[in-house]
Amino acid sequence: MTIALIGDNRPRLYWGVTAAQCLGGIPVPLYQDAVAEEWVFVFQNAEIAFAIAEDQEQVDKLLDIMPRCPQLKHIYYDDPRGLRRYDQPEILGYDKLVELGREFDRANPDFFLAEVEKGRPEDMAALFYTSGTTGNPKGVVHSNKNLITTGRMAAEIEGITADENVLAFLPMAWIGQNMFSYTQAMICGFCVNCPESSDTVMTDLREIGPSYFLAPPSVFERLLTQVTIRMEDASWLKRQMYKYFMGVAHRVGGKILDGKEPVGVGERLLYKIGDLCVYGPLRNVLGMTRIRITYTGGEAIGPDLFRFYRSIGVNLKQLYGATETSVFVCVQPDGQVKSDTVGKAVGSVEIKIAESGEILIKSPGLFNEYYKNPQATAEAKDPEGWFRTGDAGFFDADDHLKILDRAKDVGKLNDGTLFAPKYIENKLKFFPYIREAVAFGQGRDMCCVFVNIDFECIANWAERRNIAYSGYTDLGSRPETYELIRECIEQVNRDLAADAKLAGSQIHRFLILHKELDPDDGEITRTRKVRRGYIGEKYGTLVDALYSGKSESFIETQVRFEDGRTGMVSANLRIMDVKIASPDAAKQAA
Length: 590
Known about the structure:
CATH superfamily of the domain at 410-589: ANL, C-terminal domain
Low-confidence stretches: none
Strand order of the largest sheet: 2-1-3-4-5
Structural class: alpha/beta
Distance between the termini: 58 Å
Oligomer: single chain
CATH topology of the domain at 410-589: GMP Synthetase, Chain A, domain 3
């Protein structure tokens, strides 16, 4: 029996996961912001018969796909608003379901514990579907043993106890959320808090003050962007104090946190004053006053961003894992934290690098199989049990793992230069002004990129400079915005020029897209991974314009709105050339 769980983080949805597992069912959490069409394959593949939905929006989408998903017979909803006039026999409120359960329990008092006793470590605990970057998603099968062993191993390494406080705000469909806010909570017994709504997460973060925290780099970027905007609007005295003490923090904050390198008495005193006047209030604004351990993973995090949080006393560490590995593969040990690695293998996890440069993993948390997909399982696992991650990387001198790019994406330019698009995209996204980037260059003479601006950040930047704009498309097309992004790209080129292997893959030309890349339009996944191949095909006209030497190109694109309607967005996009850095210029910049 499979049961879908769809909605924002809500206690009743987590209880639904627990109830299904107690009775031998298989919970299948799905992304609540997905359009109904994206669920069809999963419902058909997993033969989902039951679904617990948060509200009317999710119920409507389930009713829409029900004719194509014949196994789906029962839909239960948590929030009754807007559902009073729904009279379909398949729909039932959560409260009514609980009432029926209590009646059944009174009539069958031994049933529940008898079902629990039937559970075994090898039983399927949950089914997590991958984001489907290149095709249909794959159902990752994890057993109770996979999840419990990995969760306990990670908890013991980090000293996680029942005293921790966690904010469950990431999508339930992501296995990282399941591990941190469900599996480890069951193992350790700590408190899990659900935000009031998706719009109040940052406020709830400050009110709750979690001690144990996981978020992708984009969350840390947004938090810092908010701080930066507030400081730019602050008084001259506050700006100067912030600037001075952040300078102190950058010099000694990381050293004090790691407790390894010696720090002079004078610097320590300045840091304590800074902690009283700046860092402490800043951690409070960020909701990190009580943070003991915080992880970031899923994408690379910018070194400046990483350094900022650690310098103000937040123990931010990088985590590496995958849906197939129950999350934990590598973690940075305390006192051995680096901005350019993901740390060392956790516990009994084994890692080796194939001749091709691909990272291979053996782990007690390694998935059993891809659901109903033996071919994909055989391609992912070799006969000796090594999992092919698809990531390319290497070990540094301290046995820390460094991730370069997706192995299949690492290619070459026409002159033989190494081309790692994700590596370049991540370096661009380290700048607060750049939300997304898409790099092209495989089999071509040079590297060119599409850029999505961070609207909130650049809007604030533009308003302080009295630059008028009417919306995203207009702001992105402004000459001042292009100059700002060009400066960011030229900084990336200087960084690339300093690396002999990547110097030839510097960015030559770019354009700012007229719309934000959107999962509803198929351009990125629900976990915000760029579908580079699809984007290259969809915007083929723009790609051709980048490589043909044109200075502008017209584009018209269909977009999907939140209510399901579609419309057209068009624009005449400017294309700008970028200065290529020499190795000498890179050395001078360093």
